[in-house]
Design a protein that fits this description.
The complex is a heterodimer of chains A (291) and B (381). Chain A is 74% helix and 3% strand. Chain A is mainly α and 291 residues long. In chain B, strand 11 and strand 12 form a beta hairpin. Helix content of chain B is 46%, strand content 19%. In chain B, helix 2 (45-64) runs parallel beside helix 11 (305-324) and helix 11 (305-324) packs across helix 12. Chain B has two domains: 30-148 and 283-349, Rossmann fold (3-Layer(aba) Sandwich), CATH 3.40.50.2300; 151-278 and 364-378, Rossmann fold (3-Layer(aba) Sandwich), CATH 3.40.50. The chains are: A mainly alpha (291), B alpha/beta (381). The interface between A and B is medium-sized, with 31 and 34 residues. Chain B: Residues 1-27 form the signal peptide.
């Protein structure tokens, strides 16, 4: 039982990271109908910004955190104007290719500026974790889980209870109709990119003390987050969260009880099973072609 | 005399090409070129930088001492991207330059396996740092190893843990790539010979984000000592932290990655009091100390095996070419295999007919972040 609890905690912790990045995928997909393959690089860039402000410049952690997130908001604006906006009237394929290009540009830019050395970023708390009976709770994972819960609540309130949230939803559902109702579609898409970049950045900053800060950190997480998005149902916020958590728990238990080397395999096995038997994901709706 | 159009065209082409051809001929003769595949990008880019530095420092020393066959040595580096396809591409780029007389391959066995068929096809000497024993035992006579192979590291880890530390219940943890699998196998075989078969033999995939299931498996196995073969420092750092957080404090003897600079930086106190087999230990010999000083002076960073093996590889290759008096591959090969009692940064080189230069390991301890030399264990075979 102790083993199960420990694995469950770790699985939820790592799953929460996937969920945070998956959320960024979903929001941009809903607003623009394209997958942003640079979402993982948003996490990596934010983690490096934290290293610059907090470690290199020695600024207080909370200040570095706020400035790093502000930097991510700016990156969201630049990304929207530089990658999405010029291609907004094209089909989804050029936009997706542009996001892949942007992902390569971001990782190589960081490599050129900061070098290839992995960096250490301290966690938010001085205490690495707490022993609760037989289970060790890593303080950083606790923080990640808490932030994920808060974000779920925030997203519900924001999208369902605020006018801006409803405008964003309207834009994602039908851009032409939203435009006819006086909603500035380009502004809504800009806000979505900013929010997604900040979310991706938040995930990167939170996970950096656990996985270290490296050029590859974003792509590793993004691959799983992408799988989580499909499992949860592409385009569904709740699905992204549930998909991420499920993936984290499945791979952790799969590693413990079946095979450690095939840990990643379990995640993708589940993905394949979903693609075959329930391609719309857990919360997605079946899209039927009309006769 | 009347020129035909064809004669005019041929003359013009020859006239345009002549300066370039002359330059090329001059360039070919001006230096002796050594090709090097190194991870400039990818997960091992940091250690790749150390490797390139080691090779450059060796070449500087060689050039100062008169060069290679009276000419200056020149290092041509190609990025292997820390991937198998990357090193195949990098090597093919270098191999296409016919004036390169010898090469430095990878410290990663899996990459050496990937490039080995092309090495055999090319038929020129390639210095390697990969420690999978099979690399020099698979009929490829052009591979020469500048680190002790894992059959030695496995034996030394087992010997030290069983005889010196007195532990018999082993958990063996290794990466599932070529290096880790071969290392884990060598350690397991050595433990079986010592009458202490491992209670847990656990593989893991590279670039894992979480090692909780592994740590819990070690805990449940009842092991009283851990032996490990990690390929990437990121993995080692994450594992070391989780091992300590989950309360596992058994002695740990690891493969050389446990004492390299990046791992020490990432894992910090989680690696205190661990032991490692190290092919490079600064205090193990005068040659090691001398290299340590040169490297520190040049880089302000502590030396480790990443830079030491490339330093030795270039030094030995240059010495072999000078001794052979020729850049003919077969003659260089014979000269390398004839090298005995050659003092290198990694140890004393005595090449056997398989191309293995070193036959023993140092044991070092992480004393609060400082790597302290304990002893050298040499094998007689």
């Amino acid at each position: 039982m102790d083993l199960v609890l420990q694995l469950l905690f770790t699985g939820i912790g790592i799953g929460a990271v996937y969920a945070l990045v998956a959320l960024g995928f979903v929001l941009i997909f809903r607003a623009t109908n394209v997958v942003n393959f640079a979402q993982g690089e948003f996490s990596m860039v934010a983690a490096y910004l934290m290293v610059v402000f907090s470690v290199d410049l020695g600024w207080p952690y909370w200040l570095s955190f706020l400035i790093a997130l502000a930097g991510m908001a700016l990156l969201g604006v630049i990304f929207n104007l530089g990658v999405y906006y010029p291609l907004r009237h094209r089909t989804y394929l050029p936009v997706i290719i542009a996001t892949i290009g942007a992902s390569i540009l971001l990782s190589n830019s960081v490599l050129a500026i900061y070098g290839p050395q992995p960096q250490v970023l301290q966690g938010w708390f001085d205490t690495p974790g707490i022993q609760l009976g037989p289970v060790y709770l890593d303080s950083q994972y606790l923080l990640i889980i808490a932030v994920t819960i808060l974000l779920v609540l925030f997203n519900f309130w924001f999208f369902e209870k605020t006018l801006l949230g409803k405008k964003l939803q309207a834009t994602s559902q039908d851009k032409e109709m939203a435009s006819l109702l006086g909603i500035s579609v380009s502004t809504m898409i800009m806000i979505t990119f900013i929010y997604s970049a900040v979310l991706g950045g938040l995930a990167g900053i939170l996970v950096a003390p656990v996985l270290f800060v490296s050029i590859q950190m974003g792509s590793t997480i993004a691959l799983k987050a992408f799988a989580a998005t499909i499992i949860g149902g592409f385009g569904d916020v709740t699905g992204a969260i549930i998909g991420g958590l499920a993936l984290g728990v499945i791979e952790t238990f799969g590693a413990a009880y079946i095979s450690v080397p095939y840990k990643d395999g379990f995640a993708f096995l589940v993905l394949i099973a979903f693609l075959i038997f329930r391609p719309q994901g857990i919360f997605g709706e079946r899209v039927a072609e009309k006769a | 005399m009347k020129l035909t159009r064809r004669e005019f065209s041929a003359g013009l082409a020859a006239g345009l090409a002549a300066p370039a051809l002359l330059r090329s001929a001059h360039a070919q003769g001006a230096t002796i070129k050594i090709g090097m595949c190194a991870p400039v990008t990818g997960p091992a880019a940091e250690s790749g930088g150390y490797a390139i530095k080691g090779a450059k420092l060796a070449l500087e020393a060689v050039n100062k001492a008169g060069g290679i066959l009276g000419k200056q040595g020149e290092l041509i580096v190609e990025d292997d991207q820390t991937t198998n396809p990357g090193i195949v591409l990098a090597f093919s780029k270098l191999a296409s330059q016919s004036d390169i007389v010898g090469f430095l391959g990878s410290i990663r066995s899996t990459q050496v396996h990937a490039m080995a068929p092309d090495v055999l096809k090319l038929g020129k000497p390639v210095m390697i740092g990969g420690t999978d024993p099979n690399l020099t035992h698979m009929g490829n006579k052009w591979l020469f190893r500048f680190r002790p192979n894992d059959s030695y590291s496995g034996r030394v880890i087992a010997e030290y843990g069983v005889s010196t530390l007195g532990k018999k219940k082993w958990a063996v943890l290794h990466s599932t790539d070529a290096f880790g699998t071969a290392g884990g196998k060598a350690l397991t075989e050595a433990l079986q010979k010592l009458g202490a078969p491992p209670v847990l033999d656990q593989g893991y995939a590279n670039q894992s984000q979480d090692f909780t299931p592994v740590v819990l498996a070690i805990k449940q196995s009842g092991a009283d000592i851990l032996g490990s073969y990690f390929t990437f420092e990121n993995d080692l750092g994450i594992f070391a932290r989780q091992l300590r957080q989950l309360g596992v404090n058994i002695p740990w003897v690891g493969s050389p990655s446990i004492v390299n600079i990046t791992a020490l930086k990432l894992a910090g106190p989680a690696l205190y009091n661990t032991y490692g087999v190290a092919d490079y230990a600064e205090d193990s010999s005068d040659a090691s100390k001398a290299f340590g000083k040169i490297y520190r002076d040049a880089t302000k960073v502590a030396p480790d095996n990443q830079s030491a093996w490339t330093y030795d590889a270039v030094t030995v290759l240059a010495a072999a070419i000078n001794k052979a008096g020729s850049t003919e591959p077969e003659k260089i090969r014979d000269a390398i295999l004839a090298i005995k009692k050659f003092p290198g940064a990694e140890g004393e080189y005595n090449f056997d007919q398989n191309g293995d230069g070193l036959h023993g390991y140092n044991i070092v301890k992480n004393d609060k972040g400082k790597i302290v030399f304990d002893k050298h264990i040499e094998s007689n075979d």
